[in-house]
Each structure stands twice: as structure tokens, then as C-alpha cells.
Specification:
68% helix, 2 domains, Mannitol-specific EII, Chain A, transmembrane (chains A, B), 6-stranded mixed beta sheet, PTS_EIIA_type-2_dom (chains A, B), homodimer, Na+/H+ antiporter like fold, 23 helices, ion transport (chains A, B), PTrfase/Anion_transptr (chains A, B), mainly alpha, transmembrane helix (chains A, B), elongated
Chain lengths: 564, 564
């Protein structure tokens, strides 16, 4: 049996390790800047691939991420497995009932989102072939169909990841976007199979185009009905009779792999199979949260970053860069998709704001355009500059879609108290009564934005006289609104002995949080108080919090307790 | 960038799906027969590989699990990733303090476990080369060294998995076996690097044998000191400042991949790197249980079954089968290892029973012998019959080790009450008082092993009169020992209204469990009662249990509540 050489193994493991580390690191940095993690993950690939590292240290980049031979194929295999499992998770998270409820809107958006960009792309490629970069030998009709398809297919994985990063995935809007993208992509891939047929290459070795279409529809229908029904019956049986959680995990993952293999075999892409398996599994009550969590977390933080980073590894974005071509492709792609889907959204009765959000959400392209472009390149239908333009278009639209939706929908992360704790904001109190504790906490903080410690103490004591701020269960929240403050500030004092804050349950407070908020920001105080109450209400959290050695351990504890 | 063909992707996904499904299924069946799951997983590979499926349907088997070309390399890449991540988990589970405590014993067992089989193997190959299958052109000294090494290297992954399956991994004995195996294997791989050097092929492309040895020792030392110290400081920082659990997961997995790449690069196997990274990560208190659980479960039920099943795919065990050679290799291998390690255990002051258990535990060979054999085959040092004999020896010793340790240590699974619930053993009670409830439960059960319902009712009521069996928190356990019963029987009655069983907390019982045990089996009653108390004490469990629709749902609930 043929096996990998010593060098192949070294390179595979080193490449995966570096790619994962870079993707996770830049993903975290993107989150810091309030961007979706996928932004940083794609960027990691561009930095490590031919564009940056490849230009600075070509031998090193080529060694770590080989562009041909066994190494390239191995990396491609890993990435394929990654994307298949990521789509399983996306499918499991999908809420199919929303889709049924919004059926008409989904069809309208999905259809408009393919007809518009398809028509625009076809017209441009047919009437202005030179501008769109048609190669001399390419057949005009096939070229126009290719461009039209390449501009029409949305990137389901990117869309799903962006929506998850923005916490929109399970919202009505998020589910509509995902359903429309599935609808759109299935049609797109079927058209692509037709084009391949016209070129004399079939997408599948075993099936004609007609069979591919029929089998795809049959498979989709079956997964949503018979397979779904059977899975709902099999899962409790497996849980009862097999080891736990091994039985359900093994079952889910092997069915997903087989579903993916099936759709790839019949000529549409593997990801549809695992996505539909995920949908069929997803909303059964027998599929316990823990199994879902294990698959979700391992895939989201191992496989997904690998896949998204790998996109940036594919091409050198400098060498084959044709600025005009890139601009034209990008503008045509965005106009067709954003306007088409936006119009579809309006037709379906959504608000202008939601319609634009759908337009930019569906505008994300991704791996599909790259796979499609690779095939077209291989068969001489397009040249390298157009391939680069397509990939840049795919990446730019993907990178745009998160921030664009964020700003259109005016999304803000809920404010958490830990975001306003300065690094010195944790103190073990010496004080034994309420007034001394307030003075000690304000003293720890020092003057804030020019407001003196005395002013702070006075304002907080005044508020405290109106009504005591003991919440019960050992927590007190002396607070005040201060004119001239631009941002909230929180200080946490720990008192082993406990200080009386006149709490409803009569207990003394071991956790005293001094909270200062801007005078005109109503929301801040409410959100921070609610967050503190929710966090400290957990007994295990309070016990562990009394033991922390400093701010780092305290933050770590809050994060792991509240899944934030 | 080179990428996989449509057919490669289909085959890769289908192959992985079938392999995973078969491995998990046979793993579960093995557990049913009280065997370690790894037994079933290896068997799955033998059934799907050239030996069985390959003989019955050669084209199908070759299509699904290609033996050369891209498909074979892809599968090998997946299996390599699988084994690397499995060893990370094994490392994380390892309890390093036990190893220090038992340092002398570990060294004695580890050393005896390599000197003995090495000497036996060398002597056999040197004095009886014909019997051991030396090829005509092979150099006698190199051949003898190869045989000696091949018989000396234990299979750390198989040993770790077997110990985990037997729940022995974190015991003192388990940790000693693992530590001795690590010690043994590091030496074994270094000798192997020396042999490759003598053959004019180096294990590493970049390092001499001397450098490999020095770098291996330095890396091991560094991981157990500096790296361990740094990781213990970095983990809380990551937890505090990165997303959770993504930060720690990404960090752990990428460090493991890089560690594995490093050890592969310097010329020992990749698995040592990830194992040592796991050891360095493992026992930090900052590494929360949930992260450990996510990695552990995904790896144990996805990657590990794929790896173990893949062993069986490597060769056709019928075609190149030489019964005498197989027998000789097997006997020499077992004698050397079992006696060597057993003697080592006795020298280290362990009991005879523990020494034998160590001998059979360390006797497991695995992937190492197969990788080693593949290299020797490629360089013409051995022929295919000897290769088959080595692989069979590896598999047989692996399969033996679990059952042998089980029987030597007389391990028994603790008896759970659900094992004695007949399929009709769940009933919604009509009865409103104690006597009626007992009669209704006994009636549901019917006569057992010839003992009439009346006898049962009388015995239980007699016991009940001695002392009421209400445990509190809504649970009652009327029970009796019956002469002539060979096995315990349990019936569960649910009473929505509640029946008074005179519980210490004054609550009526909603769960009434009738328990009948053999008269002479003291343990059964105690174990079953303890298990019931432990299971039903959880409030969430009781709430969910009142809602179950039938036995399957009830069993599923018990399994998922108690991690059984």
C-alpha cells in the first residue's frame, strides 16, 4: 500500500499547524476590531500564501504550502474535509421551520438573486468580451454562460460563517438569507453542470446532466422527508443502545461524509450533501446539546479556520493582477447581486434596511468561484488575470459582507461589565462598612477623565442614600451617573468578611462593584447591571471568583462561565 | 494550484464515511461483548480491506480504499492526522506525577521490555535466518537488527486506547504502562534511525543519527519543563483575552500539529511530538474540562476509529500468509515482550498479577511495526510473507492485550440497574398505595424463572414490613432476595400522583423500582441500589424521566445523564 514519505508528513503537519495558528490569531484580532472572525481567517491565508510570504520568502512559502504534487493534494484533501464538516454544522444550526414560514420570500430573494446577476454577467460577457477578459480561442456562448454563472453563485459557507460571527444565523433574517443562498446555489451548480456538458466535460463521470438535476432534487426532497423522519427515530435508539456520546457522534459524522460523497458523485458539490444531512439531523430534540456542542466547537475552531485560510493560499494576487479587469468584475458582480437580492427582498415585502442587508449578505462569493475558476482555467476558457479577478472578487465580496450587514443593521454587541474593568480594577477591600468601601473603590480607580475621587465618592454616596444597592446573594452595585464621563467604568472589590449593603435577602456583600456611567447614556447602566446580575447569580461562579489571584484569572473565569 | 479531481473527492469522502461507520459499529458490538472498542475498530478495517471485502469484491474494495496513487496518499494523510491528534489526547490524559512517583519501576519495566525482546529477536534472526524469513540478498547484521527492533517497539496508541477502554488509563498501573511504553518506544525509534543509517537511508533528510538522538532528548526535556511552564502561563491569558473556547482549542491543536511536525522532521515519529505537547498541556488547572471534553470526544469518536480501522486496510492477510513464519514471529514476539516486561515488573517489586498485566499490556504492537515493515519492504530487506507475519503479529498482540489484561486483573464492569430492566419493565402505575403498587409491578413482570407472581409479592411485602423502602426525593425501592433466581430483575413504575413509601423526607414516591436479586449475590443488591440512588438524585433527571414515552427514551435519558 502506497504511503506518505517522511517529508510529506512533516510538511503536512507543519503547514496545518502554521495555517491554523495564523487563522485563529488573525480571527481573534478581527474580533477585537468588531469584524467577523472569517475576515481575519481569509487574511491569514493571503499573508501566508504566494501573495505576501510567497513574495518575501518564496522557497519557504512553497515548502510549507506546496502548490503542486502530493503536498498540494494532501492540503486540498484536508480542506475538502474541513468544508464538508463545516457545512454539516451550518446545516445542523439551520432552523428549517423558519424557511417554511418564509417560503415565498425565500423563493423571491433566491430567484432574484440569481436572475439579476446572471443576466448582467451574461450581457457584459456577450457584448463586451474584451473588457471581461475573454481568451482568443474561447467560444463566446460558453464564455458568457461561465461569467454569468460565476457571478451568480453565492458562497454558502462564507455566508453561514459571517451570519454566525454576527450572531444573526438563527434569526429570521439570517435563516432567510441561508435558505435563499441554498436555493440560489443549487440552481447555480446545476447551470454549471450544464456548461461543463456543453464544453464536453461532465461534472460527474457517471451521470448525464439530466440525471444530475433529477438526482439532486430527489436527494434534497428525500433528506427533508424520509431521511429526516428516519434519523429522528434512529437517534434515540442509538443513544439508548450505543455508548454515549460516541454513538451519536460517529453516526452523525459518518452519515454526513456519505451524504457529501453522494452529492459529489452525482455531479453537484460535496458540501450540499453534508449541509442537507445537517439540516435533517439538526432540529431533532433527541440530538442533545452536548453532541451538537462537541461537533460545533471542534469544527468551528479547527476545520473552519483551515478552510477559510486556505482560500488565500490559492493564487498570487500581485503577479496576475489587472486593475481594470478586477474593478470591472467586482463592480458587475456587486451590482448584479446586491441590486438583485435587494429588489427581491423589497418584492417579498421586507423593509429597505433588511433588503439591503440581504443584498450584501448574499453578495459574498467564495470557494465556489475559485473551484469554478480553476476548472475554467484548466480547460482554457479563461486566462490567469481573469482567474485572479474572480478570486479577488470572491474575497472582497466575502470580506465586505460582514461589515456591510453590521453597519446596515446597526448591530452592536451587548455591553458587558468586563469590557469596562480597567486592568487595576480588581481590589481586595480593607473596608468594613458601606461608606468606607465606596471611598476605597473610588480611591483605587483614581480620578477618571478629570473627575476627582471626591466627586465620585459624593455622587455614589448620594445615590446610595436614595436606595441601598445590595442585590442579594452577596453582591452590591453602588453606582452613579456622572456628567462629563464619556465611557462607563467598573471597579470590583472583594470582601472576604462581607459588607452590609442592605440587601433584600439580608446577606452581606462579598462582591462590591462600583459602576460609573455617562450621564446621558441610559442603556449603559441598565445593560451593565443586568450583565452583573446574570453573571454573579451563579453560585459556582461566586465561589470561584472569591479565589482568583488577579484580573487575568477573573476575566478567564467570567469568559468560561458565560460562554462569552 | 493543483487540486483534487471530482473522483478523488468522491472516493475520499465515501471511504472515510464507510470506514468510520464500520469502525464505530464494530466498536460498539465489541463493547457489547465486554471487549475493548479498539478490537472492533481494527476488525472493521480487516473486513473492509483486501483480506475480506477485497477478496469478495476486489474492484469495489480497491475503488473505496485505493492502494496506490492520490487516493492512497490522501487516506494516509487523514490517518496520519488522526494518529497525531489521538496521541495529543493520550498525552493530555496522562498523569505525569504518577510517572515521577514510580520513576524507578518505569525505567526497570521500560528497559526490560526492550532488552529482552531485542535480544530474543536478534538471536533468532542471527542463528535461524531461514526460519525468520530473511531474503537471500539481505545483509545478516542489518536483518537481525531490524527483526530485533521490530519485536521491541510497543504500540503507544494501541496501549493508550486499550487502557482507556478498560478504564485503567489514569490508574497507577495504567500510567506506569504508558510511561514505560513511551520510554521503550523512544529508544526503539532511535535504534530504528540507526539501522536506517546503516542501510544508507536516513530517517530524516536533515539530520544525522547523532543529532536526531540529541534533539529528541532535548525536545522531551524542554516540553516537560520550559514549554510546560510557559503553557501554564499562556492558557489563562488566552482564556481571558481570546474567544472561548475557540482560543484555547485553536492554540492547543496548532501547538500539537507543530510539535508533531518537529519530531517528524528531526527523524523520530510525529506522534511523539503531539504526545509530549499533550503531556505539557494536560494537567494544568487552567485547561477547563469543557475544552478537554471537546477535543477528547471528537478525537476519540472520529479520528481514533479511522486510524485503528486503517491498520486492517494495509495488507491482504490471505495471499501472503505463511503459517509457520506467522507462528514463529508471533511466539518469539510474545515470549520476549511478556516475559521481559513481566520480569521487569517483578524486579520493580510489583505483584505477579500486576507484572503479568504489564507484560500483556506492553505486548501490544501496532502501526509502528507496520510503518517499519513497509520501509524494510521498500528497501528489499524483507519479503512480503515476513511483512504479513509482522502485521499479523502486530494485530494479534494488540487484540490480545485488552482481553488478557481484563482477565488477569479480573476486571468487571459495575452493574447498572438498566442492565436488568426487561423491555416491558417500565409501567405507569394505577395503584394508589404501597401494597397495590407492589402487586401491580410484580404483575407487570409476570413469573420470573418459574417463581410465581404471588411468591414475589409476598417476599417484597415481607421485606417492606421490616423497614419501608422510600429513599426520599420521590424514589422508593421495594426489593427482595429470591432463592432460585439466577440474575437480578428490575421493574420501574411511574406514579404521577405519588405513593407513600414512608420516606425520610416525607415526600411521596413518583418512581417505584421493584428490585429482585438472587439470594446468594450480596454485591448485586448493593450495587443496584447505589446506582439507582446516584441516578435519581439528580433533579433534572427526575423531571425528564416523568415525561418519557417508553423504554427507549428512558434508557437514552439514563445514558446521557450519567455518561455511561
Amino acid at each position: 500500500m502506497e504511503s506518505l514519505s517522511h517529508q510529506d508528513v512533516t510538511i503536512l503537519l507543519a503547514g496545518l499547524g502554521v495555517l491554523l495558528a495564523a487563522a485563529r490569531l488573525l480571527g481573534e484580532i478581527a474580533r477585537r476590531f468588531q469584524l467577523p472572525a472569517v475576515f481575519g481567517e481569509i487574511l491569514a491565508g493571503i499573508l501566508l500564501g504566494p501573495t505576501v510570504l510567497g513574495a518575501l520568502a518564496p522557497n519557504f512559502s512553497n515548502l510549507l504550502f506546496p502548490r503542486s504534487g502530493t503536498g498540494a493534494l494532501l492540503l486540498d484533501g484536508m480542506v475538502t474535509l474541513a468544508i464538508v464538516l463545516f457545512l454539516l454544522v451550518a446545516g445542523m444550526e439551520a432552523d428549517i421551520s423558519t424557511v417554511w414560514r418564509q417560503g415565498r420570500a425565500v423563493a423571491t430573494v433566491g430567484l432574484a438573486g440569481i436572475v439579476f446577476p446572471f443576466a448582467t454577467g451574461f450581457a457584459m460577457a456577450w457584448y463586451l468580451p474584451g473588457l471581461m477578459g475573454r481568451e482568443p480561442g474561447a467560444a463566446p456562448l460558453i464564455f458568457a454562460l461561465f461569467i454569468a454563472t460565476a457571478l451568480s453563485i453565492s458562497a454558502l459557507p462564507v455566508i453561514a460563517k459571517t451570519l454566525m460571527d454576527l450572531d444573526l444565523y438563527r434569526s429570521d433574517l439570517g435563516m432567510m438569507i441561508v435558505a435563499a443562498a441554498v436555493f440560489n446555489d443549487l440552481i447555480g451548480w446545476i447551470i454549471f453542470a450544464v456548461i461543463l456538458g456543453m464544453m464536453g466535460v461532465t461534472g460527474s463521470d457517471a451521470f448525464s446532466i439530466g440525471s444530475t438535476i433529477i438526482l439532486t432534487l430527489l436527494f434534497t426532497l428525500m433528506m427533508l422527508t424520509v431521511a429526516r423522519w428516519s434519523i429522528h427515530r434512529m437517534l434515540p435508539w442509538i443513544q439508548a443502545h450505543a455508548s454515549w456520546p460516541g454513538g451519536q457522534l460517529g453516526f452523525t459524522l459518518s452519515v454526513a461524509l456519505l451524504g457529501a460523497a453522494f452529492t459529489e458523485w452525482i455531479g453537484v458539490h460535496a458540501i450540499f450533501g453534508s449541509f442537507l444531512v445537517g439540516v435533517a439531523m439538526g432540529d431533532t430534540p433527541h440530538f442533545r446539546e452536548r453532541i451538537r456542542g462537541v461537533i460545533d466547537q471542534f469544527v468551528s475552531f479547527f476545520f473552519a479556520p483551515l478552510f477559510f485560510a486556505s482560500i488565500g493560499l490559492k493564487v498570487n494576487f500581485v503577479e496576475h493582477f489587472d486593475p481594470l479587469l478586477v474593478l470591472v468584475v467586482l463592480v458587475v458582480a456587486c451590482l448584479g447581486k446586491v441590486l438583485g437580492c435587494g429588489l427581491g427582498g423589497r418584492l417579498a415585502g421586507l423593509s429597505p434596511r433588511e433588503s439591503w442587508a440581504i443584498g450584501f449578505g448574499m453578495n459574498a462569493r467564495g470557494a465556489m468561484e475559485i473551484i469554478l475558476g480553476l476548472l475554467a482555467l484548466r480547460f482554457g476558457l479563461i486566462g490567469e488575470p481573469l482567474f485572479v479577478a474572480l478570486v479577488i472578487m470572491a474575497i472582497v465580496t466575502s470580506l465586505m459582507s460582514g461589515p456591510a450587514m453590521q453597519s446596515i443593521l446597526r448591530l452592536k454587541k451587548p455591553r458587558r461589565f468586563i469590557n469596562f474593568l480597567p486592568s487595576r480594577g480588581l481590589v481586595r477591600l480593607q473596608a468594613h462598612d458601606r461608606d468606607a468601601a465606596i471611598a476605597e473603590l473610588a480611591g483605587t480607580l483614581g480620578p477618571v477623565e478629570g473627575i476627582s475621587v471626591e466627586t465620585v465618592v459624593e455622587a455614589v454616596r448620594a445615590r446610595e442614600r436614595l436606595m441601598a444597592t445590595g442585590l442579594g446573594y452577596g453582591v452590591a452595585v453602588p453606582h452613579a451617573r456622572l456628567a462629563g464621563l464619556s465611557e462607563p467604568v467598573v471597579v470590583l472589590g472583594l470582601s472576604a468578611a462581607g459588607i452590609d449593603f442592605n440587601a433584600p435577602d439580608g446577606k452581606t456583600a462579598q462582591f462590591i462593584l462600583l459602576i460609573l456611567t455617562p450621564e446621558d447614556d441610559n442603556g449603559a447602566q441598565v445593560q451593565i447591571l443586568a450583565d452583573i446580575a446574570r453573571t454573579f447569580r451563579q453560585r459556582e461562579f461566586r465561589q470561584a471568583a472569591l479565589e482568583v489571584s488577579g484580573m487575568t484569572e477573573f476575566l478567564a473565569l467570567v469568559k468560561s462561565t458565560t460562554d462569552g
